[in-house]
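Re: the pair you flagged

First of the two:
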Amino acid sequence: MKYIVIENHRTEFPDPIILKQGEKVIIGEESANWPNWVFCTKSDGSNKGWIPKQIINSESDYGNITEDYSAKELDIDIGTIVEGMRELNDWLWLKNKKTNEIGWVPVKKLRKLE
């Protein structure tokens, strides 16, 4: 599905957490603004980031990641055409058609194209 960006987006996390299926994380707080997003730390302490609750198989304070995951957000400008690949918890994993970059952008900053 194609979308057009209706509001600029800039990431607050220049060093996104990237995880492989089966990796262990330390589970932190759930976001107050974005339901089903949990702030986690890699088990070795090397990186932190927001992870969708749906891909964490939790065991109290720890969890195993059930699929490969990247928290990369795209810096993107109004008018950019993107291709949506996966929507999860009000965010869209998408591809910038011009640069071929892939990452997350909040759905509220996009409009579907017919």
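Second of the two:
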Amino acid sequence: MKRIVNRLLVVTVAVYFFGCAARSVPTSGKTGNYNDYNEDLSDVRPAYTPAPAKTEPKLGTGAPESKKIIPSMSAEAQHVNRRLEEVMDASAAKNKSIRYAPGYRIQVYTGNERQSAEAAKLLVYQNFPELNPYLSYKQPTYKLKVGDFMRKMDAERYYSQIKSLFPTAVLQPDKIDIRYSMSIN
């Protein structure tokens, strides 16, 4: 048992000293400095031929102005353009069918009295004719919301003005009508 422990100790010490020995790294040659990397990539690079230079007639030589030549499109390019136009037309048709989007409205009135809701609606019409009012009724409450704002920043601009007329006004996220939101500046 003592022999095995001694041999194991000798092997461990030898591995330790050989592992910690200083090694020199060559600084030149193929396995040298990492800055000496050199590889020829000319085989994999694409080759381009330069376009021929156009010569323009000099002014005052009396030469007639040459017609501009428009290069004809290849059949493949025309196919790609047709396909792209079809995709864009389909996307435009799909976008036209979308009527509502997430946005913001300002809730001006909440209460149980229809006359008060109608009076608030009239006041909004008089002061902000560009904003569309939306009066909804869910028993027993009337709610009057105004505007179709795509961005919160636009809604906040109107909110500060409406807040002076209606102190209980609240800015809320809502589903808005896209057609009317485009007309708000």
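The chain has five helices and four strands.

-B.
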